[in-house]
Amino acid sequence: MQTRTLGSTGPAVSALGLGAMGMSGGAYGPADRAESIATVHAALEAGVTLIDTGDFYAMGHNELLLAEALRGRDRDSYRLSVKFGQLRGPGHVFGGQDNRPEAVKNFLAYSLTRLGTDHVDIYRPARLDPAVPIEETVGAIKEMIDAGYVRHVGLSEVDAATIRRAHAVHPIADLQIEYSLLSRAVEADVLPTLRELGIGLTAYGVLGRGLLSGHWSPGHVAGPGDLRGLGPRFSSGNVEHNLALVEALRRVAEALGCTVAQLAIAWVAAQGEDIVPLAGARTRERLAEALPGMELSLSADDLAEIEKAVPPGAARGDRYPPAFMSSLGVGN
């Protein structure tokens, strides 16, 4: 596994990270605890060192799961990226975002306990809190860095202006944001700003929540607990259009001797050495399929063919339901 450095101040991590959200259920349907833990172990054995979670993933379940999976491992052999701030009520009801300095420290204390660790490598607000200046939130994380509980500051789903304000308070290691062949809004202003300031990018949703996996077929219905059933890109009329793009991409993948998923991951990785894709694999089978994507070397001609198959802006439907789009720093 190759490594990449998150920005000019962040840590060196594996070129492919592991996104753990789906391992706790509540997003893509039920998950198997034993298989999830086995997948974390398989990722570590394959050289994956960056593991991403959120304290609100299944209301803390995800952090407890990772604590179990990582127990006994050398703490210096992996990096934990943790998002915080999203408020939840019973029944998975969303209650907004809380990025107040006192909340930052409260959330961190709980995460450290659930994860069974004395520090978090990258700590980031999951979304911007419109009631709290980003300077105050980053300042609170900086205090936790000075106290030894956090190593680096990260951001998630914010715009270029917010990135600049945050970076002026303390160097930002990376921005976590959705980036895939179907979601390229980051390219206009955010990615150039990151590169100007020396900030890395960790890309989630590289498989478009499964649309680009090559395993989602027309007529497939999201099961109970699978939030993709609410996703505009999976709605009737949109999903057929989007899957036609996937079929065009499949033809390129077949010519290169890889799967659609591997090609989609390789495309994100090819956009720059400062970008680390996150694979949201929750089974060893899906992880095994994702890993070879990092070994693909795409030529200029290959990239041109991919662009023909899935041009910028070709996806139909927003990447989140309307209620969540307003919390994003950039669009689709």
In short:
With 332 residues, the chain is α/β, with parallel strands linked by helices.
Considering the chains and any ligands shown, give keywords for the structure.
two-stranded antiparallel ribbon, globular, single chain, 332 residues, alpha/beta, 8-stranded parallel beta barrel
Helix content: 25-40%
Strand content: 15-25%
Cα-to-Cα separation, first versus last residue: 30 Å
What's the arrangement of strands in the largest beta sheet?
3-4-5-8-9-10-11-12
Structural class: alpha/beta
Shape verdict: globular
Q: Can you give the mean pLDDT?
A: 93
Number of DSSP E strands: 12
Return Rg in Å. 19 Å
Secondary-structure element order, as H and E? EEEHEHEEEHEHEHEHEHHEHHH
Please, could you describe this protein's structure?
Strands 3-4-5-8-9-10-11-12 form an 8-stranded parallel barrel, surrounded by 5 helices. Strands 1-2 form a two-stranded antiparallel sheet. The model has no long low-confidence stretch (mean pLDDT 93). By secondary structure, the chain is an alpha/beta fold. β3 (17-19), α1 and β4 form a beta-alpha-beta unit. 36% of the residues lie in helices and 18% in strands.
